[in-house]
Specification:
- This protein starts with a strand and ends in a 6-residue tail after the last helix.
- The chain contains eight helices and 16 strands.
- The strands form three sheets. It has an eight-stranded mixed beta sheet with strand order 5-6-4-11-12-13-10-14, with helices on both faces. Strands 8-2-1-9-16-15 form a six-stranded mixed beta sheet, covered by helices on one side. A two-stranded antiparallel ribbon has the order 3-7.
- The chain has about 350 residues and is α/β, with parallel strands linked by helices.
- The protein is globular.
- The chain has helices at about 10-20, 55-75, 95-105, 120-125, 145-150, 245-260, 305-320, 330-335, and strands spanning about 5, 25-30, 45, 85-90, 115, 135, 140, 155-160, 175, 190-200, 215, 220, 225-230, 265-280, 285-290, 295-300.
C-alpha cells in the first residue's frame, strides 16, 4: 500500500512512525526547508492532557494519549524527555472547581494525579508558590524538534515539497497532516491559525532550583543547561511567525503575576514564534475526510496539546488505514471525526 503524508510536523511524523512500526513504508512531503519547521520546531514543549471537569470523549482521548506518550517516549533516544511533573496552579475559583472535578471524575490513581496544598506544591517545585495546585507526577517536557527527528528515523521524506493538488501525489492513501494547510484540500473545516511565541531566559540563582513545570495559563519549565522556557502567547488574531519583542515581556509578566519573585534576574536570550492549527471546538480533527475524497484522511487541529494529541491520532489513523480494530472507543472516534462539522 502506497501511503503519502502531507506535512512533516508532529502529526505527520508521528503517523509515519506508527505506520513504519506496522510494516508500512509511508512517504512524507513537507513544504518547509526541514522537518518540523513550523509549530513542531520548538526546542522545548510541555506534554500533558487537556484538563476538563467531566469524563467523556475528550478526557478519554487525552488519557489514552498521555499513557501512549509515556510508553513511547521511553523507547526513543535523544528527544530531551524529562518527566519532571507539572503543577497546574489553582489561582482562581474557576480552576479550583474544575480541577477538583477533574480529580473526582477522571479517577486516576493518586500517585499520578492529585490536588496538593501550597506547602506541598512549593516542596515539589523547589521554589515558593502561593497557590494550591493539581499535580501530575509524570507530565513533563520533550523537544518537539527532536521528537520529529526520532519519529522519522528510517522514513522516506521530501522537504521543499509544496503540494498544491492531491493529484500530484501518487498513492493509495493520502493523509493531510499540514495544519491549516489542509483547508487547501478540504473546504468547510473550521480550523484556524493560532500564533504563539515562547521566550527562553537564562536562569537566575533562585529560578535554577525549580524542579518541575509550573502551569498557570502560561508555563515555566525547569532550567535545561541553565535556560528556562516561558510561554506562550495565544494570539488567534495573528497568522505570522515573526518575533514580537513585547511578547517576551508579556510572557515574563504573566509569570510574575502568579509566581512573584521567580521572574527576577531572568535574562531573555532567545525566542521563537510559530502558528498552530486549532479547531472551532478546541478538539483535534482526525479521521476520513468526508465529501467523496476516497482514501483521504486528516490529522489537524491539535492546538497546544499537539505533542500528545498527534501521537494518539497517529495510532487511530493507522488502525483506520490498515483496517485494524480501533484503539479508541466509538464516542471518542465520533468526537474527533471531521464529519462532526458537516
Amino acid at each position: 500500500m502506497k501511503i503519502a503524508i502531507i506535512g512533516g510536523g508532529l502529526a505527520g511524523c508521528a503517523l509515519a512512525y506508527v505506520l513504519r512500526q506496522a510494516g508500512q513504508e509511508p512517504v512524507v512531503y513537507d513544504a518547509g526547508a526541514s522537518l518540523g519547521s513550523g509549530a513542531s520546531g520548538n526546542s522545548t514543549g510541555l506534554y500533558g492532557p487537556r484538563l476538563c471537569a467531566l469524563r467523556g470523549a475528550q478526557s478519554d482521548y487525552y488519557t489514552a494519549a498521555y499513557s501512549m506518550a509515556l510508553r513511547t517516549f521511553k523507547t526513543l533516544k535523544d528527544i530531551d524527555w524529562n518527566p519532571c511533573g507539572s503543577l497546574y496552579l489553582i489561582h482562581n475559583e474557576q480552576k479550583a472547581k474544575r480541577y477538583a472535578q477533574t480529580v473526582k471524575n477522571w479517577g486516576w490513581d493518586e500517585g499520578e494525579m492529585r490536588l496538593v496544598d501550597t506547602v506541598e506544591a512549593s516542596e515539589i517545585a523547589g521554589v515558593d508558590l502561593n497557590y494550591d495546585a493539581l499535580y501530575l507526577r509524570r507530565a513533563g517536557c520533550v523537544s518537539p524538534q527532536k521528537l520529529c527527528a526520532a519519529y522519522m528515523s528510517g522514513v522516506d521524506y521530501h522537504v521543499n515539497a509544496r503540494i498544491e493538488s492531491l493529484d500530484e501525489v501518487e498513492a493509495d492513501v493520502r493523509v493531510l497532516a499540514c495544519g491549516v494547510g489542509a483547508l487547501k484540500f478540504v473546504e468547510g473545516l473550521p480550523i484556524g491559525p493560532v500564533r504563539g511565541q515562547l521566550t527562553q531566559v537564562k536562569a537566575s540563582q533562585y529560578s535554577a532550583d525549580l524542579t518541575c513545570n509550573i502551569c498557570y495559563g502560561g508555563y515555566f519549565t525547569p532550567a535545561k543547561d541553565g535556560v528556562h522556557t516561558v510561554g506562550a502567547t495565544f494570539q488567534p488574531w495573528l497568522e505570522h511567525s515573526e518575533v514580537i519583542e513585547q511578547d517576551d515581556q508579556d510572557n515574563i509578566m504573566k509569570l510574575a503575576e502568579v509566581v512573584p519573585g521567580l521572574e527576577q534576574g531572568l535574562e531573555v536570550i532567545d525566542r521563537r514564534a510559530s502558528v498552530r492549527a486549532a479547531s472551532r471546538d478546541h478538539f483535534p480533527v482526525v479521521g476520513a475526510v468526508p465529501g467523496g475524497l476516497e482514501g483521504v484522511y486528516i490529522s489537524s487541529g491539535h492546538g497546544s496539546h499537539g505533542i500528545l494529541s498527534s501521537l494518539m491520532a497517529a495510532h487511530l489513523l493507522a488502525d483506520m488505514i490498515l483496517g485494524r480494530p480501533l484503539c479508541l472507543g466509538g464516542h471518542s472516534v465520533a468526537a474527533l471525526s471531521p464529519q462532526r462539522f458537516f
